[in-house]
Amino acid sequence: MKFNSHFSEISENYLFAEVADRVAAYSKAHPDKSILKLGIGDVTLPLAPAVIEAMHGAVDDMSRKETFKGYGPYEGYDFLRESIKNYYSSHGVKLAADEIFVSDGAKSDLGNILDVFAKDNVVCVPDPVYPVYVDTNVMAGRKVIFASATESNGFLPMPDGKTDADIIYICSPNNPTGAAYDKAQLKEWVDYANKKGAVILFDAAYECFISDDNLARSIFQIDGARTCAIEFCSFSKTAGFTGTRCGYTVIPHELKKDGLKANAMWYRRQATKFNGVPYIVQKGAAAVFTEDGRRQIRENLNYYRENAKIIADCMDRLKIWYTGGKNSPYIWLKCPDGVDSWKFFDRLLNDIQVVGTPGAGFGKNGEGFFRLTAFGSREVTNEAASRLEKLLK
Fold first, then answer.
1. Kind and range of the H or E run holding 19
2. E strand segments, 28-86
3. Which of 86, 164, 251, 265 has the greatest CB tally within 10 Å of its CB?
C-alpha cells in the first residue's frame, strides 16, 4: 500500500483552519475581548421565509406515503433544474435542463470535475486564488501554472503569449480579490480557450452581487463559451445555503473532444460517486427563484452590499488602495506601510480584535494584501469599520 504522496506538496493546514486556530488561541488567552470576525466568507442572515416554507412543505411530503421521496435523480430534480434554467434565461442565457447538474455546492464540484480530465493536463489558476483550485490539482499530481494577478492589472490577469494551459480556472467576481472581469475581457479568455483547445472552469459563486451591466453574470453570456467552458454556481452566497449545501454545475452539450462529451462523462461520474442532494434541500433551493423568494433574497443581498459599502467607504477615508466592495462581497485591501499580510492579521487581532484573511494565504501575489468580508452582521461591520479607522488613521 502507498499513500498519495502529492498530499505532502500542499500546506499541512488549510488557510481558514490556520486563521481559526490563531483566533481560538487569542480568544483563550483574552476571554474578555470582543472579537469581530470578517474573515471567512460565511453568511449571517437566516434563510429567506419562502425557502423555509418550501422546506417545511418538503418535510411534510416525506411524512406521507404518496409524496415520500427516496433516492433522487443523480443530476437533480426536474423542478429545480427548470427553475435554474429559467433564472439563466432572465439573464439572456439559454440552457437545456439536462445541461444543469445539481450538487452539494460549487466547492465540491470544482474539485470533483477533475475526474473527467486526464492527469497530464496543465492547469492555470490566477495568483492570488481560492486555495481549492490549486490544492485539488496538486493532490491529483497535475502541473499548475499561475496567471499573475497584481495591483497593476487590477487583479484581473489576461491571456498572453506565456499562457499555455489546458484547464483554466476563472472566478469572477473573484474570491479573494473582489475584482470582476467585464464581458470584453472574458471574450478574450473564451477566444484563447477555443483556439488552444482548452477548457475554462468558471466559478460564478458570486454572480448575484453583480450590478454592472458591463460585467458577466455567466460565462455563457459570452459568444463561443459553449464550446470551451463549464460553469459552477452555488446557493451559498446567493441564498445563504452555506449550512444547507446546494449548488449546480452547467456543462453544455457542445463541450466535447476526441469523441468524448463532457456532459455525459460528468453524468456518469455523478451516477458512480454521488447520490444527489436531499429532496428537502432542493425544494428550498427552487423557492429561491419564486417571486417571493427572489424579492426576499434581493433584500438579503442588499444588506451585504451595504456592509461592503461601509467597509469600502472606510478604506476610502483612510486612503487605502483596494479592489472589490462593489459587485462583490469582498474588500481586498493593500496592507498599510508595506507590512506583510500575516503581521497585519496579528496587528488587527491583537490591537482591535478584528479578524480578516491574510492575502499570503491565497498565493505569492497575495502577500501585502488582506481580505475583509461583508457577510458579517451590520453591527459587527459598523464596529469593525470604526475600530479600523481609529487604528489606521
1. helix 15-29
2. 36-37
3. 251
